Every structure is written in C-alpha cells, then in structure tokens.
Amino acid sequence: MGTGEPSDSRDLDQERLLRAEQLETILPLLMSYVRRLVGDAEIARDVMQNVSVTVLTTSESPSDGAQFAAWCRGVARNV
Q1: How much is the pLDDT for 31?
Q2: What average pLDDT does this structure show over 19-31?
Q3: How far apart are CA 45 and CA 40, in angstroms?
C-alpha cells in the first residue's frame, strides 16, 4: 500500500461531505423543481431519492455552488 492512500481517503471523504452539504443547501429548490417536472408529490419524492443517491455517490461533481445546482437539476432530468 502506498503512503498516499490515507490522504486520498481523507480527501474523498472531505469531497463527499462538501457535496452532501451542498445538496442539503439546495434540496428545497431541487425538490420544487422535480415536483414541477413530474407533477406528482409521491413520484417527486422517489425521484429525489434517486437524485440524492446519484449526486452523493458519483465520483465527480462541480464545486461551484451555482454549477452544482445546475448539475443537480440535470441529474434530476435524467434519472
């Protein structure tokens, strides 16, 4: 095992934490967007669950807030 692995793991954990915080910030607006897309509250909740899993488990995402929000809307349109 290389000496860089623990640092890489911490970096990945930090990225995931940042992504979770960004997602939490935009969740109300994203939920509203998804609700308008699908037209049904129950389906919107299901879509949001899929969007959240996708956003939180993807390997890369934009770090800028506005770009992150736009990227999440794109994920919502495509799940």
Answers
A1: 97
A2: 96
A3: 9
At residue 62, φ and ψ (nearest 5 deg) are -65, 145
Helix axes 41-57, 65-78, angle to 10 degrees: 120
By CB atoms closer than 10 A (0-12, 13-18, 19+), residue 26 is middle
Concatenating the DSSP letter of every residue in 7-67 gives: HHHHHHHHHHHHHHHHHHHHHHHHHHHHHHHHS-HHHHHHHHHHHHHHHHH-S----SHHH
What is the residue whose two structure tokens read 């969007």? Answer: 51
Which among 71, 75, 53 is positioned nearest to 61, based on CA atoms? 71
Which distant-in-sequence residues (6+ apart) come within 8 Å of 71 by Cβ? 61, 62
